[in-house]
Amino acid sequence: MYVPFARKYRPKRFSEVVGQDVAVRVLRNAVRLNKLSHAYLFAGPRGTGKTTLARILTKAVNCLQPEEGEPCGRCENCLSIDKGNFPDLIEIDAASNRGIDDIRAIRDAVSYAPIKGKYKVYILDEAHMLTKEAFNALLKTLEEPPPRTVFVLCTTEYEKIMPTILSRCQRIIFTKLREEEIVGYLKTICEKEGVECEEKALITIARLSDGGMRDAVSLLDQASTYGEGKVNSEVLEEFLGIVSQERVRDFLKLLLNSETDQALAFIRDISQRGFNLTRFWDSLEEEIRNLILYKSLKNPEKVMRVEDFHKSFTDKPLNALLYLEKVVNMARLDARSRDFLRACELAIIKTQIIKDILPIGELIRYMSSERPVEPTQKEQTKQEVEQEDPFKPLEGKLDILLMEALKRSKYEVKEDKFVFFVRKGDLTEQDMQKIKALNPKIDFVVEEKEEEGGLPPFVEKVKDIFGAKIVSHEQRGKGKGSSGKSS
After folding, report:
1. What CATH code is carried by the domain that includes residue 211?
2. pLDDT per residue over 67-117, tens digit each?
3. The dihedral of CA 426, 428, 429, 434: what is its sign?
4. Within-domain flag for 345
5. Helix ranges, 148-244 (H)
6. Residue after which a domain boundary falls, among 130, 156, 173
7. What is the pTM for the complete model shown?
8. For residue 58, what are the domain limits?
9. Does the residue 364 lie in any domain?
10. At a CB cut-off of 8 Å and minimum separation 6, what does 150 contact?
């Protein structure tokens, strides 16, 4: 009779467990040092070895010839546990036996001594599914269990376990397995089974299993059956309906090069051929994330597998990759209001500008060369003053004659001041101080009075405005009713 890989290669000793070093060390030392707890809570993702370690613990505490905390695997009790007919191992599926009556039955049976082994072990799988009443019925038993009785509660949802239960158990947290750990174990199985495997295909299986060894081994089993003893990228594409990593990277290259026509044809082709488009988009996001990590980290090889793929993309600026990541991620939000394929097509169209995105440093240099020179603080202050009206703060505060005299005077802006040039005697010192008090931005330069025959003030102003040149100057009588003329 055929035995699936998941059962055939299920660890039977602590040393065979992959990726749960902390849990293994705690339990093995507890057995070796005779410090066994009466109740354990194993919490972690599915397929990471919780039930497997519970069974190994049962073997270790009931083994007739233990070896430094390890079960021998050869004695009568070990073999009986492996076959599933050991009377002192009671496994209960709490998802289907979750009521108070089920727990009362356990509570009644607990009082009986072990039949064949040293310890009676109760394994409650999916313990979080128990009702509140069932949990309460279990409390007293967990707190004061009969001698030589061990409870192991296994759960994938730690937060649903009642705090009163948690306080009575020794908690052991199981973590997801690393990709390389899963790939290594799958290689071992392939060698033992004579399966021809491609490492890229095993990496794909490890990623699909999401850190769960059981799922990975089951996928390997199915893929090897479908591929008639061969597991490669083509087999996985056909069997699982997923696009291989190499084709995902080819698609990524199209996006980074803004080859939107080819990218649209690619996405429509895999959709028409029945591939899982959502899983393909997940793989694309993962590749973009890895590429961003590679570009961002100083030593990426310490936290990720550095492959030739990443090296071939080192010429792409980081800001282009970040833009692509945002576009690809937004497709999922866009898919809430439209078909996922249409959302992906729209995202592809948005990548047309990627090839034109400049690196940050080059962009800054470009903007600096194109941007007009900023005025200095003094120039900026002067420009602001030039836009002001120097006479406005004086309106209604000076008499008309003094205001007219000021308006007839020339002035220019020097930094943050209106400098008026007045002839000596036109304004008194008192007048100038009064004006400066009303508008602190006004200052005065007193010029000597022109000699007889000088230009009248209004003529001087016209000359300055139009840049005129005095061709001839004639001054006529100055008596009453007379006027001076210039030309």
Report:
1. 1.10.8.60
2. 888 999 889 999 999 888 899 999 998 888 878 888 888 888 888 888 888
3. negative
4. yes
5. 163-166, 179-193, 199-208, 213-226, 233-240
6. 173
7. 0.64
8. 5-173
9. no
10. 36, 37, 38, 39, 40, 57, 58, 61, 119, 120, 121, 122
